[in-house]
Design goal:
Length: 739
Amino acid sequence: MLAVAQSNTDKKSYNSLRILFLISTLLLCLKPNISFSIPDKDYASLFDLSLQELMNIEITTASKHSEPIGDAPAFVYVISHQDIKMRGYAILSDVLRDLPGFDTTEYGRAEFGTEISVRGIAGNNKTILLVDGVRVNSPGAEPLQVRGDISVRHAERIEFVYGPGSTLYGQDAINAVINIITKNGEDQNASQVLLVGGERNYKEAYVAYNNTFNFSNDVPFLLSGYIQVLDADLAELDSEYPAWWDGLYAGSIAKAEGADPAVRWDEGLNINLNLESPVNTLRLWYRKSSRSTADGSTNPGLYSELSYWEDEELLLNFHHQDAITSEINLHTSLTYKRIEVDPESRFAIVRTDGQSFFTNRKYAISSGLTWEERLEVQVNDKLFLNSGLVWENHSTLPKTTINEGAFDTNGNVVLQAGEYSYYTVAGDASSLVEEARATELHYQKYGAFLEFNYQLNEQSALVLGLRQDHDEQSDESPLSIRFATIHNINEQLIAKYIYSEAFSSAAPYFAYVNFGTADSIVTNNTGLEAEQAKSHEININWQGQHGFGGMSLYYNTQKNLIQEAREGFSFNLVNAEVYRDEAGTIPRKLIHTANGGSSIAQGVDIYGRYQLQDNASGWASYSYVDYEAKIEGTSRGLQNISSNNVRLGLTYNVRENWWVTPSLVYRSTPQNFQALRELDDEVRDPYWLNLMVRYTPLTHVEAFLRIDNLTDNKIALKGSGGPLPQEPRSIRVGLSYQY
């Protein structure tokens, strides 16, 4: 079965690369005016390291409309297209690693990819990702997937809005809202072909196209888009971390068929197309990812050739803007999303006899339609109103177990998945309980929001926002609030206070779970409730002639925490003993995901950018967080993440067409691992030294060298059940051509 799956994967990668080649050839034909020459000063100025663009940028994510970054009622951190180019970012996880306040573990649980913690609060289900303002999180509210299929190469900028954002974006906007804003057809320099190769068979191909068309009625149409294909083998952890491997895995692996060697890979495909007119925009966004489910686990069985995970997502969006008057704008948005997990996906787990694997497959599918009407009204010089209505219609089948054998995704999945049975009383046939492994849900959501922005005087403004949501699936109607005051102390200094409330939904992914383990049966909890969060933040931002800097102090609280069944709290326990057989010889605990406990996270983010000379620009940030969760009378600290994070970097224009960017990421020792598993040294004060070198030999041609983990430092970060080894040094070289 593995040979077939691997062969199919190889064919998919080959076919994707062929498609990229054909498309790039066609696009080159559409742009015939191509020249090769040594760079001149005008071309070199495209790489001018001035920070004026960032300091004066207009952002859209914090309030859903364009506003200067200093006027936004939130702390917003922006990564520009120039940052992406000079630092060598390819996918979103590259960017997250360098952000203040973020603590990430790449190649965590295969379902999610990079595991995200923001300001001490862990969970991919607490961050929202937008592409050009359109939410791409799964319609089934599964935790956000951040893998090798979210490209940033075509981004004009990426806006990171810290803190709760539920007043505008609804559920799950507790930690942050991320908006990847892509280049449009106005940027003629954005058409590009790029090829990258590197260690461990790293292969990446990227093609972008931007153009403006004018038809007979002189209405301009902007066409833009890209395709990115990434295919890489990951490190062989048995040779990179031998003590860890031998101590934890060797005994079990040796007895398990198909478990040697440890196979790990990462494949991603990302496609984005935008067609824009002055009032209408049509968008298509598609991603597909395949990787080993060995990632993120300390279970020896998972490091086998059977470990496999693949899913895909399609998003279609139509947006229309109607300028009713010069002061009133109506925005209509209609979005369709669909995500599906390949039913060959599985977690392979060694049985107690060590001879074979539990290889039942996993499957999930969800789709949703979202309609939003948003009205902007400039009432007068001082008052701006932003209001909206949102309707969502969802169909979802949360992740379920599918038995081996024939499976038809177009058939009745619930029937094919079968039932999971147990007895509540030993020897009593009438106590039999039969639960469907799969649950198919159909439900609607409604939301309404209103936000006031009032300019008190030339120096001060107030923002007040409210949103009410209703979810038929959980029958909840949470209220979200945002209040902000913004004060311009002088021309260089801005102070903000932001208070906000948000919620993370009781998603079907957590509420509808049914499977068995060696000692437990995990069952559904249809009464699961949403998590609630509150945040207080003070942000002070300074802007000078050659740079900017800032500091954010925050105090965040959460309650009604969603605790997965495996956490083992008393509220997770449904029945202390049930039985797999009628005779009662196979006892199990009956458990479920449930709400319980509260938390406090407080800390500071300090950040800055400064232009040292005309040819050098540096950035730096320091983040500190203290976290405590109180659950059933006990206290927990940070969830295997660091309390201190430092980022440093410098881009230096060595010569007219040479740029060098060294950078450092340092984290204090992650806290509160239950067991270090032979990774004592690797966990202690992890750091990365990275290097990016860019060379422009010709006007439209660029070559680069990117080295991650330059010193080949052995690092372990948060994993499932303990610390997890991270990737060693990685060297990549690339060549790009703009047309």
